[in-house]
Design goal:
The protein is α/β, with parallel strands linked by helices. The chain has seven helices and five strands. It has a five-stranded parallel β-sheet with strand order 2-1-3-4-5, with helices on both faces. The protein is globular and about 45 Å long.
């Protein structure tokens, strides 16, 4: 059974994107697609990036924990809000902290906004950063427009059937990529 790490990227007061992370965690678990854990960047509260983890002499325990959880995950969902057309510095900080951990890691992106476009402007810049880190980007995206209306604070959807249908295609694509990677690694060995 695959294990999925869900990165909740926003550290902002009153963040809405965390609701999306909670929704995905519940959706994966309830449908028995695998196990899922949320890696909440607000809780990690990393200092401003000054060096990659693998080059630090005395890394903070939170950074080592984050690295270990990314390594152990079969796939990653990044849930990110869009701030002025880009992704939050908390996410850039966490991505840059690691390097070998991202290599060939299946990563799916869900963008979030309180507007009608669902944060889609952030996809290009985030995908480019992950591409440069040699991550395996899942081709399906899952924008969440007007997230404050889609989900309550615990991640429960207002229209469960519609949201789960959209999430289903997204999660299935991630799981396909996870399985494809596992098959390729098996053939390499």
């Amino acid at each position: 059974m695959p294990h999925i790490a869900i990165i909740s990227s926003s550290v902002r007061i009153g963040r809405v994107s965390h609701r999306v992370a909670l929704f995905f965690q519940q959706y994966i678990s309830n449908n028995k697609f695998g196990t899922a854990e949320i890696l909440d960047l607000k809780e990690y509260n990393f200092p401003v990036f000054d060096e990659r983890l693998n080059h630090q002499k005395n890394p903070i325990p939170a950074a080592v924990d984050f690295s270990d959880r990314i390594k152990k995950a079969d796939g990653v969902i990044i849930v990110t809000p869009e701030y002025n057309g880009g992704y939050p510095s908390s996410l850039k900080n966490a991505i840059d902290l690691l390097y070998p951990e991202w290599r060939r890691k299946p990563i799916a992106i869900s963008t979030v906004s309180d507007g009608v476009f669902g944060g889609t402007q952030v996809i290009t810049s985030l995908a480019f950063s992950l591409f440069k880190m040699r991550a395996l980007l899942v081709p399906a995206m899952c924008p969440m427009p007007k997230a404050q209306e889609l989900l309550d604070e615990q991640g429960n959807p207002a229209d469960k059937q519609t949201l789960e249908k959209r999430a289903g295609a997204f999660i299935q694509e991630l799981l396909w990529c996870v399985e494809a990677k596992q098959k390729m690694e098996k053939n390499d060995g």
